[in-house]
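A.,

Following up on our hallway conversation. Structure tokens first:
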């Protein structure tokens, strides 16, 4: 089988698993929901960090913005948001029936993506003129700043956090949020696969390879960088909206803008699977999430040590990520390595 066959076979297997999981693993739907969302996190980070070469430590901001935006829209459609957050979502006056909950969710998730995308445009126009370490350092403080701002904003619960709308008992939200997570992961993967096959995909790769040369050739690099960050933010915002509802409580520091964990994890997942590849973030997120769940279950108290050792082993023995290692071993099945592609280009120029 050639690479194309493997590609479509893998998509078919994932699609079947995604559809059948509620019937095959009904007791683990919450874990599978978060796995699909972790895949979205890794894919969107790799759009800028792997495909475009801009390593951002602030993508978790869009995740948190989407989380708050979705919850706020879900509530504000039916109740005064300030009163709801002041009461911490409690009391018999804040009841959501099935129609209200589903309508709020249908409006809240797209709003989360749009608001996160607008945030990316505003921030991108300010800091995407920076390059390299300067850009990375600038993004490092974004999650901290966002968490502090949210902690001081009473309308969304400030430091006390915000409870997401409670669904009626008659609604099977476990299955609902599972399929929403799966659909978002599938949509993100398909959209990015298409995006990387277009001229725009080549443009962001040119920025990664040599931004000065790309500018000299007439590419509008800042515009392309802002577009890439905005696309990543849109999907991240929707992922945040789903994650907030899964968590049922949004804390500004420990959940929404948790750069120390979620912000770092999305980077590690992309690196683990292989930066700058379509399948790398998917594989990296799957391996990382499964190992994290095993460590948190069987090595409680030592889970972070075990996770750190796993990362070290990957960096030492698989510096190109899992997909890069597979390409080195079986290039006919998984594609040539970057070094082989450069050698072929050099031979062609000669």
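Then the amino acids I'd put at each of the 350 positions:
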């Amino acid at each position: 089988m050639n690479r194309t066959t493997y590609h479509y076979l893998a998509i078919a297997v994932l699609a079947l698993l995604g559809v059948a999981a509620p019937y095959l693993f009904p007791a683990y739907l919450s874990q599978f929901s978060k796995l699909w969302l972790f895949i979205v996190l890794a894919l969107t980070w790799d759009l800028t960090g792997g495909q475009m070469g801009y390593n951002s430590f602030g993508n978790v901001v869009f995740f948190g913005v989407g989380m708050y935006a979705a919850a706020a829209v879900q509530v504000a459609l039916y109740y005064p948001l300030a009163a709801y957050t002041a009461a911490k979502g409690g009391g018999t006056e804040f009841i959501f029936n099935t129609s209200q909950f589903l309508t709020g969710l249908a409006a809240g998730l797209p709003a989360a993506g749009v608001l996160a995308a607008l945030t990316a445009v505003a921030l991108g126009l300010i800091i995407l003129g920076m390059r390299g370490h300067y850009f990375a350092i600038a993004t490092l403080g974004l999650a901290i700043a966002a968490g502090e701002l949210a902690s001081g904003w009473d309308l969304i619960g400030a430091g006390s956090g915000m409870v997401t709308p409670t669904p009626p008992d008659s609604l099977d939200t476990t299955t609902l949020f599972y399929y929403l997570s799966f659909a978002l992961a599938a949509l993100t993967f398909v959209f990015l696969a298409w995006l990387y096959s277009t001229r725009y995909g080549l443009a962001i790769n040119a920025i990664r390879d040599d931004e000065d040369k790309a500018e000299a050739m007439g590419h509008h690099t800042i515009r392309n960088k802002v577009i890439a960050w905005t696309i990543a933010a849109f999907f991240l915002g929707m992922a945040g909206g789903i994650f907030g509802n899964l968590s049922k409580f949004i804390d500004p520091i420990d959940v929404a803008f948790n750069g120390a964990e979620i912000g770092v994890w999305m980077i590690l997942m992309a690196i683990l699977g292989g930066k700058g590849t379509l399948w790398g973030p998917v594989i990296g997120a799957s391996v990382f999430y499964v190992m994290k769940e095993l460590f948190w279950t069987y090595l409680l108290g030592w889970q972070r040590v075990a996770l750190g050792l796993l990362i070290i082993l990957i960096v030492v023995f698989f510096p190109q990520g899992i997909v890069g290692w597979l390409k080195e071993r079986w290039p006919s099945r998984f594609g040539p390595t970057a070094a082989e592609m450069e050698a072929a280009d050099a031979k062609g120029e000669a």
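The chain has a mean pLDDT of 88. Curious whether your intuition agrees with the design.

B.
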